[in-house]
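Project standup — Tuesday

K.O.: blocked on the structure for the chain from last sprint. Re-posting the sequence here as requested.
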Amino acid sequence: MHITLEADYAVRIVHALAQSGKRLDAKTISEMTGVTLRFSLKILRKLVAAGIVKSFKGTQGGYEIGKPAEEISLGEVIETIEGRYTLNRCVTGEYACTRHKNKCCEFQKIFREISEDVRKRLYSYHFSDFMEK
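H.V.: unblocked you, prediction finished:
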């Protein structure tokens, strides 16, 4: 189990913006993070829509962190890109278990607990925790 490459890149992008403390253009963000410019722009659109990053147009345009680093968690960034974290699809309401009629198997409760534990851990880390002092 692992997060997608897009979520990994989103974490890198948010970290770069938080670390810089200033407005950066997409090309600079791409170079700092090792993410292609095209993919950076796609990720930045999602981060802007979520309010994690702010965008500015014009000659002085670019991107900057949308709120203080201590208010942005790893969980928020990852779930902005991937949706709510779950260990198994049976934990979501969108999936109907095919193992038993009208009830779920004995593993669903365990998968739900593990999913919530992971989510709590991801939300317990904030980008301020990773700032160079």
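K.O.: great, moving the ticket to review. The chain has five helices and two strands. The beta strands are 53-56, 62-65.
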